[in-house]
Amino acid sequence: MSAITYTAKRNLVPSGFDVTATDLSIASVDNSINSVTTDLLGLLASDYILLTGSAVDDGWHEVYVDSTATKIELLSSLTDEAAGSVINIVGYKHGLSVSYSLETGAQALNPSYPADTKAPSSLSGVTETLLFAEHEDWDVTTSIITEAEYPYWREFFSSVRAGESFAFDPYGTIAAPDEVKTCRLVGDYTVQRQGSSRRYRFSFKVRVK
Length: 209
Hints:
Layout: E1 2-7, E2 14-21, E3 25-27, E4 32-34, E5 48-52, E6 59-62, E7 71-73, E8 87-92, E9 99-104, E10 108-112, E11 115-118, E12 130-134, E13 137-141, H1 150-160, E14 166-169, E15 181-193, E16 200-208
Antiparallel strand pairs: 1-9, 1-14, 2-8, 3-4, 4-7, 5-6, 5-8, 10-13, 11-12, 13-16, 14-15, 15-16
């Protein structure tokens, strides 16, 4: 197995929950969003919501327990607010700037050690090779990724493709780490669909920082 731990920043996986209403009030006593008629079912404990349109509680919040038809309880500390504002709640499986992990049994896992060199030649024809840096790279092809897992891998790649650091453990798992390396993504990743099914493999390269 190989393990990756990253901070979710882009292309976060939606849960499918999306509500806009004016009958939503906010209660500080139990840090909840409450409705009169709007159906709030559909959020699970540990989901996240992006709340907009409130007076002071806009932002990302983690769901405390599964929502009911009339209540969403959150782990955040909220401020009392009467109904009337146009409030929008969008649900996500992951939260912005929260750390998450993925595991895969790699189909290919190949280290390499490229070097940054320059070899100028003098007028007499003598060539001197200058070494600027040595690197440790890993070329990875994942095991089969199912359709359900696919969005989380897309989230990972989107979250690190601007050079953000993440943890990569070539031969470990989240529960049993082996040698965790701080890495960045090198270049673009590719996706190979497996036959006619909605099953995939991702191929990518990481560089140890």
